Amino acid sequence: MASSCSQALRHHVCKSSRILQEIVIPKKKTWSKEAVLQALASTVNRDPTASDYRFQDDPYLTPKTSSEFKLFSLSQESGRNAAKYFISTYPKYFQKDYAQPHIPCLMPETLEAQIEEVSEAALIERIQMRKVKAAVDLYDQLQQAGTPVSLDVTNQLLDLICFYGDCDPAQENVPEQRNEETEDVQDEPQTKKGRASKASDKLKAAWKENNNAERIFALLSEPNTHSYSALIRGMVKYGAYSKAFSTYTDLLNNQLKADVSTFNALITAAPEVKEKYNEKWELIVDLLKQMAEQKVKPNLLTLNAVLKALRRCGTVGKSQAFPVISEMRALSIDPSLASYNHLLSIFYKPGAPFQGQTDILQEVMNEVSGKSFTPQDPDDAQFFITAVRICLDTKDIEQAYRVHELLGVGENWRLLGNDFQQNIYHARFFSLLCMMENIDVVLKWYRDLVPSVYYPSSNVMRDLLQVLDTDNRLDLIPQIWKDLKQLGHGNRQTLVEELLTLMAREKQNQEVQETFAECALDIKKMYDTGDRGKVMMSWTAGSLSDLVSVLLAAQRRQDAWEILKLFKTHNRVPSEELLDKFLTCIKESGDVNQALELVQISAGFCLPGTPKLIQRVQQEFLLSEQQKSMLSDLEIQTFNSD
Amino acid sequence: MYRRLLINIYQVRNGLIHTQNTRLPSTKCKERESFAPVIWAPCTARPLGTSSISFSENKENSTSLSEDKEKRPEENEAKEEVNTDGQKSTEISNATLTLQLETEPVDKPEDSKQVEKTKSGKESLLELLGAMKVEVTTVRKIRPSKTPRMSERPDQEPMESTHSMFQHATAKGSQQQGTLNPALVAAVSAAASTLPNRHQAESELLKQLRKHEAVPDTQRRADGQNIGHIIADMKVGGRKTNGRSSARPTSQIRFDDDGKGYTQDRGITGELDAVRRRKSPFTSKRLNIFTAGMEQDTLSVLGPTLWDIDLANQIVQATNQAPRNGFEEMIQWTKEGKLWQYPINNEAGLEEEASVPFHEHVFLEKHLDESFPRQGPVRHFMELVITGLAKNHHLTVQQKKEHIDWFRDYFRQKDDVLKEAEA
Questions:
Q1: Any CB–CB contact under 8 A between B315 and chain A?
Q2: pLDDT tens digits along B77-102
Q3: Residue ranges of the alpha helices (H) in A254-299?
Q4: Residues 259-298 of B with CB under 8 A from A
Q5: What is the mean pLDDT of residues B150-166?
Q6: Which residues are CB-neighbours of B190 under 8 A, at least 6 positions away?
Q7: Cβ-nearest to A103 among B306, B327, B338
Q8: What are the φ/ψ torsions at residue A541 (nearest 5 degrees)?
């Protein structure tokens, strides 16, 4: 009994021990501070009817046009900057700390150096405050006093000098302001200007011969890798490419090894120092081989630097781009969007003909679609613009949809870049839609994008009108006109004239004609008032006659008559067909007096068709004696004038 | 050859379904579907008679069929263009198949007109065949013998199995061509010429034909399903030599296993995709400069340098950091330290107490030891105090200690009073 009992017990123990073995205690999950908020944020979808979140505080400040958008977003940013400026300039007025617990970022930054004495600590402080001149002066003083400065601090100083090219940094600006000059050119294919301004920023300061960096570097008894790295990167940043390479040779002569960032800088500089495509590429390969020799592991920035350099290597770039990517893949370096951007730029040169390269985009899209990317390279933000440009150039709507889909994955929307780039992207995407899709699809996208994220330019709106025209949905014109007015394109003469022409061209059914007439009168108001400070549109004969025919088609004879009078006031001449049409319309109502007036107007313009009109009036209307004589007088007059 | 035939059947059936979809009202669909097994039969060596009923039923749609007849070869042609390794022969055999299907029901009504019509159809078919590169399939071998036979005896009872029809057909054929029809021989050699080793194929084809004549009528009735075997045999012959035969093994397998007998998802785009995937440039060869498991020499890392900070700054500037909704703005504020952190567990706000274990809070007796009396009312009071403190979650350990210390001081000051009261 006892044995069976113990057996049972043992059995039980065995069982429980087996169960115990199976228990896996889960690891403690640590959540980030923002985890809850991120979860909540992921539940909010974009509302296509609402404006950007930035503008939701005040409905009055909801931007309706691209210029308003620019103005409001910039004013918000500049307001922040102004506040920051005052806090930092007058810190003594902002010392009271209300926050509990203390919030450091709300307190004024100290902009003045606190340590006055000549010491290494003071130097470190000046380096941290990025005061280049003051730091260099202090270093000199320390040298004169014979105080040794440690190599690390000297390297930091070198970093500082090289980074700012031996100049004091300008007042730091917050991202939005940087776009000010580039955003002005929205209706144009902007890329040129955007790039030009960036390039000019870089070229502002050039590397000067024997500047402080070189001087301090020369003073170092035993410069290490870090010192060389700082110097070479500075040289590359400020355009002293060949000098960077000679410094690198110097480094090798001193039996030192370079670091990754040095190589990255040198690879960036490689296309600048060689002329031929082959030589450029050989230099890059040489650098990569030296990296391998010195056991320096490349990183993503190396990959991107190589690809960026290959953009300037013509056909060599096309053949070598994929091996480079495979090489980096083998080192488990996954390309970022910047890599793909460079890749696309290698294969699709803007303005060059595209033959048989469409599948490169497709390949790239196969690689990236569905993936969520994190920003790792400043060039990451160029990818979407480049991809959609290629779609537009090759008229590949399918890939464009894939690009747009990729934008919705994860945090990829951040990589679309700033407002300016977003605008370019959407403009290209929408133009492509207008080109390739039918009106229903285009309108679906139009309602989705405009005006919550995209304020179309007048050119794009003209594209939209063309789509309306080709798909024969002219009845939507009054709606589009409303949007046009809201988008601030109501005073674009060419656009408005095109609108009028489209409305006047064909006869629609009665209901549509009614809305057209309303729309036409609205357009007329636009001509009359002309907003303060905006360009006034001037009537042309074409726009006036289009307006008249739209009104006539809607049986609005009286309105049309008013417009007809405008011909005289604006010194425009109506066409004969228009008057003929008008007469037909008058005949339907049988208003003899107006018919006579019309003839008189025609005679006033000395139109060659006047006799014909007179004839028609004589035949088709019941005239009194007096009217008859008047007509015959007119007939004689015109005859004489001829 | 077998493979071709399979393709043919696949196409014919596709064609059938196509016509169903486009032309026929749904009521006729069922009858149409019953076609499929008939065409299916030759390649699976199933007895051909299984679906003879469908033929009799097809009588009703004979008219629509004859209409279809004009249409179908065109469809097949169109299909063939799509098909990457489509061959001319598919068309021919398609045509023969359809004809075989269509003539029978058409012939059955005793109408000379109808017969003429069939004949004209046959003629046009022959023209078509003539125009093509002549390749003979087994089906075709049967056809010329069978169709005249069918037209000769239009009174045949509808319930007779196709199997027996085939038998009749072949029997008649053998009578008609005591020795092999020279035209047929020519056709066989032409067909064989398309195969790599023409002599083998030709002799095999001819052998098969002769075998038909040699076998007595009765015996042939018994193993009439040999048509399937013939095709199977030929498959072997073709397989050995035809280099392309392995081009679509997958489709063949799918064809066999799949009850429907065709796969619609396997379009040209699918194949092209497969081709592209194989050739993806992202899997191209590498430069072979670096070795994968390379160890990096550890350089002295001094935290982020100015360059690193600048890179991060550039990335931030290049990307869109504007919040899209209130929550994202709150995330931004949290990161900047402007906002109270949203609680993510039960320990929110425990920053200064996070490192203090719970027993420090609860077991406070150790603080009572030295300066308090061991017993008596003071001790009793202090025990109550620490019990209260142990349950108080608003105070930190430090505050609790201070609390106790305050009492310590207090009782020390009142020492005289306490002694007086002899407490």
A1: yes
A2: 444 444 434 444 444 444 444 444 44
A3: 260-273, 277-293
A4: 276, 280-292, 294-297
A5: 43
A6: B133, B134, B135, B136
A7: B338
A8: -60, -40
Q: Which of B288, B315, B338 sits opposite A375 (nearest CB)?
A: B315
User: A51: left (phi > 0), else alpha (psi -120 to 50), else beta?
Assistant: beta
Distance CA B101, CA B68 (A): 11
- Burial grade of A119 (CB within 10 A; 0-12, 13-18, 19 or more): middle
Q: Which tokens in the block code for residue A58? A: 């005040």
Of A261, A324, A329, the CB nearest to B307: A261
Decide: A382 and B319 in contact? Cβ < 8 Å. Answer: no
Amino acid occupying residue A405 = E
* Helix boundaries (H) for A590-621: 592-604, 610-620
- CA-nearest of A272, A271, A417 to A341 is A417
**Helix A493-505 vs helix A458-470: crossing angle, to nearest 10:** 10
What is the rounded distance in angstroms from the CA atom of residue A22 to the CA atom of residue A12? Answer: 15
User: Which amino acid is it at A2?
Assistant: A
| Bigger pLDDT: A351 vs A341 | A341
CB atoms within 10 A of CB A426: 21
Q: Do A418 and B318 touch (CB under 8 A)?
A: yes
User: What residues contact residue B343 under an 8 Å CB cut-off, 6+ apart?
Assistant: A36, B349
Estimate to the nearest angstrom the gap between the alpha carbon of A48 and the chain centroid.
Answer: 19
Tally of CB atoms within 10 A around A511? 10
Q: What is the 3-state secondary structure (H, E, C) of B309-361?
A: HHHHHHHHHHCCCCCCCHHHHHHHHHHHCCCCCCCCCCCCCCCCCCCCCHHHH
How many Å lie between the alpha carbon of B404 and the closest alpha carbon of chain A?
28
Q: A53: closest CA among A481, A413, A428? A: A413
Contacts of B314 in chain A (CB under 8 A): 378
Average pLDDT over residues B384-388: 93
Task: Enter the tokens of residue A410.
Answer: 């994860």
Could you tell me the two tokens for B4? 């071709």
Using a CB-CB cut-off of 8 Å, the residues of chain B touching A414 are 319-321
- CA nearest to B289 within chain A: A289
pTM of the model: 0.65
Other beta carbons within 10 Å of A349: 12
**How large is the ipTM?**
0.79
CB B143 within 8 A of CB B167: no
Contact A33 B344 (CB under 8 A): yes
* All residues at 6 or more sequence positions from B351 whose CB lies less than 8 Å from its CB, including other chains: none
Which of A95-104, A390-399, A589-598 has the largest mean confidence? A390-399
3-state SS, one letter per residue, for A298-355: CCHHHHHHHHHHHCCCHHHHHHHHHHHHHHHHHCCCCCCHHHHHHHHHHHCCCCCCCC
d(CA B206, CA B197): 15
How many beta-carbon pairs below 8 A join chains A and B? Answer: 170
Reply yes or no on whether the pLDDT at A32 is more than 80: yes
Torsion from C-alpha of B321, B326, B330, B331, nearest 10 degrees: -50
Longest dimension (CA), chain B: 148
Using the Cβ of A20 and the Cβ atoms of chain B, whether some distance falls under 8 Å is answered with no
Give chain A's mean pLDDT. Answer: 83
Residue B35's nearest CA partner among B101, B107, B118, B124 is B101
Looking at residue B330, its amino acid is: M
Separation CA A455–CA A67 (nearest Å): 9
Q: Does residue A444 belong to the interface with chain B, where contact is any CB pair within 8 Å? A: no
Which of residues 6 through 25 in chain B touch A, CB cutoff 8 A? none
What are the C-alpha distances in Å from A541 to residues A231, A545, A597?
A: 68, 6, 20
